[in-house]
Amino acid sequence: MINRNEVAREKMQRAAQMLNENGIDMWAFYARLKTDTALELMFNTATQNEVLFLLTKGGERIAVAVEEDAKVYEASGLYTRVIAAAEDTFMVHFKQLFDEFQVKTLAINDSVDDTRCDGLTVGLYKKLEKAIGAGVMASAKRCSYSMLEELRAVKTPSEIAIMRECSRITTDIYDALFKRIHVGLSEVGVAKLMMEECAKRNVVTAFGNPPEYPLVLNPKGGMSHRDPNDINICEPGDMLVIDFSIRYNGYTSDIARTLYFLKPGEEHAPQDVQDCANAAIRAVGEVMAHIKPGMRGYEVDAIGRQSILDSGFPNIPHSVGHQVGLEVHDGGTTLGPKSARKASQGILRKNEIYALEPTVLQDRDKRSAIIEDNVLLTDDGCELISRRQTSIIEIPYRTGEEA
Fold it and tell me: Which end of the chain is more exposed for a tag (fewer CB within 10 A), N or C?
């Protein structure tokens, strides 16, 4: 398993480059009680104690922390300087370092666009401001949004390796499920099988508060985002949609599969089932064939959306895709309609990872399918990091688990 400190090392190296590119002298990450989610991304820490990290354009990596945390940061080897401080001396050290590096421009994590880049609380900002003076702060402060958004979205080599493994484990769990699943199970029964497979691999689900069940939906019970229940029982001739994410080494996957339970004596799913699943599969393939860096989110969305319409199914009621990373829906550019929100106007970049999910969603008396796979953007296209579903998954008729 990759040491997450390697991710932090890569992120801090890129941050120094960004500070130079943007003409910024220092970047301050100041938090307590996990108020700034960037601490996990940038420094591989989940401390609830007050902590101040300072990055400089010259490559200095400084941690100011209470003694118990300072020992951990010192041992990590990530920092050029670690200062153990009492909480009432944090700002004394900040002022000394601010002066030492002759800071004229200071990046801070406040953003009106993305909560993931808005980690500096008002109270901590006031402490920084008081330490150097309101006038100096007004002149020096810069919003870190453009840098932090890119650092979260564009994956480093270590992050890519982690997410490849995360996707592999996810599809392995699916494969194990397909050998066990049978008619007579409820949605909750299917979810429990998946939780057993997660436990075997020492991973947890990534949505909500683990061990929260994955999304298991029998379309006859409706396709709204809801919890699986014990009312909807899988019967011969039913379809089943599963949208499943795991968390591995801090990172997540997001992969969906659609199944059909064969009736006794039935060799293959009927044509209407195949047409429904194939429409979603074809749309994912169309997006994969065209997505590349430089496109805007809404341009990619239009490709998947039109493919579903061309197959004769209703317009997709959600975005065609989204970024995946530390969270299942990880902010940044969304592959959504142009008019939907600002996020869909973002420009795609190499080494971003997206979940692609152009779907067929219909009323419960009709067929529905969700096929979702994860791709890494390359120089001129994308690379699949999960294993694609290329046809409806047909579950042989059986009433109990095979030995």
Answer: C
Contact criterion met (CB below 8 Å) for 124 and 31: yes
Q: At 99, list the tokens.
A: 């002066």
Measured between alpha carbons, how far is 301 from 319 in angstroms, rounded to an integer? 7
What value does the mean pLDDT take over residues 119-123? Answer: 96
Residue among 338, 345, 342 at smallest CA distance from 302? 338
Residue 301: CB partners within 8 Å, gap ≥ 6?
A: 319, 320, 321, 335, 336, 337, 338, 344
State the Cα–Cα distance between residues 84 and 52, nearest whole angstrom.
11
Say what the pTM is: 0.95
* Preceding amide of 211 cis, omega within 30: yes
Are 50 and 86 within 8 A, CB to CB? no
Q: Describe the chain by its helix, strand, coil percentages, rounded to 5.
A: 40, 20, 40
- How far is the C-alpha of 89 from the C-alpha of 230, rounded, in Å? 56
Sign of the alpha-carbon torsion through 75, 81, 84, 90: negative
**CA–CA gap between residue 14 and residue 155 (Å, rounded):** 11
Judge whether residue 87 has pLDDT over 90.
Answer: no
CB 197 within 8 A of CB 214: no
Q: Provide the greatest CA pair distance for the chain.
A: 80
pLDDT at residue 401, rounded to an integer? 56
> Would the pLDDT of 403 be above 60?
no
Per-residue pLDDT tens digits for 194-207: 999 999 999 999 97
Domains of the chain by start residue, with CATH: 4-152 (3.40.350.10), 154-395 (3.90.230.10)
Predicted confidence at residue 100, as pLDDT, reads 98
| Rounded Cα gap, residues 366 and 172, in angstroms | 30
Q: What is the pLDDT of residue 364?
A: 87
pLDDT the model gives residue 340: 59
Whether the ω angle into residue 236 lies within 30 degrees of 0, i.e. cis, is: no
Place of tokens 């309609």: 337
